Amino acid sequence: MARVSNTVEKLLLAAPRGYCAGVDRAVQTVERALEIHGAPVYVRKEIVHNKHVVEQLAERGAIFVEEETEVPEGELVVFSAHGVAPAVHANAEARSLRTIDATCPLVTKVHLEARRFSRDGMTILLIGHAGHEEVVGTSGEAPEHVVLVGSPDEASRVEVDDPGNLAYLTQTTLSVDETNEIIDILRRRFPAIQGPPKEDICYATQNRQDAVKELARRSDVVLVIGSANSSNSKRLAEVAREMGTPAHLVDDEHEVDASWLDGASTVGVTSGASAPEWLVDRMIEFLRARGYDDLEELRVREEQMHFSMPAGIRRLEVTSP
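and the corresponding structure tokens:
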């Protein structure tokens, strides 16, 4: 069925959107390592959760592996933005691997908090999604102390041996609203629970969710550009739906179903923190070809965050011929 013609066909573009400082740093880390060292450069897991980024880096000579044990001894390996457990560093050292740790500094902050709480003998309720690489890495900092809490229902049922010696941490890319709900439940159940000095959900996750809320208020349908394994991208689509607006997560414009645009006079577009801006440009052209010529950027907040390159890159620059 063809889309109904409308008087006004508007394209709303959320801002901020796309790359956060941690993702930008991680992608540049692999690119710079390839420039200095040459191919191959091994990367443990996906450097960021976006299939287009991974494919482009692979074309340039990055080899993606699931575990550091797959990397030939003595070779160069980059650890992804999501962070790794101490055991991964130990395995890499045992294999004489040269390592570059591209862990987002905001994830490193959570790792340091896990170490501090565990040193104090506390049980840590880690709010996050089971199996997510960031959660695996954080749990690995204090495996005997961490209990995973993945939902409000789990928060209402979790039991601990010593409620007076309890802390919580969170994955950095969660739904802000759901996480706050979980924390409220935990605080009601365990009044003595301690949290981090500053909440763990990163600035970019918060900002993009705030922006998509406003986008959803003003749009008939929302398109979120991001890969299915990107936690923060999935959260953006969920947040838009919670506002009552149909929302779809797509890797690129080729995944857009024309029926989603039927009767939509205003289409909102945003992108997850691991989606490059050129995918947004392609989506804009796709929608313009379908009549959405009135483009407006909906700016909710400015971002100025920047992270310096990892120490491993600086070492590589010094030692390279």
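(Above: one complete record from the training split.) The chain has a mean pLDDT of 95.
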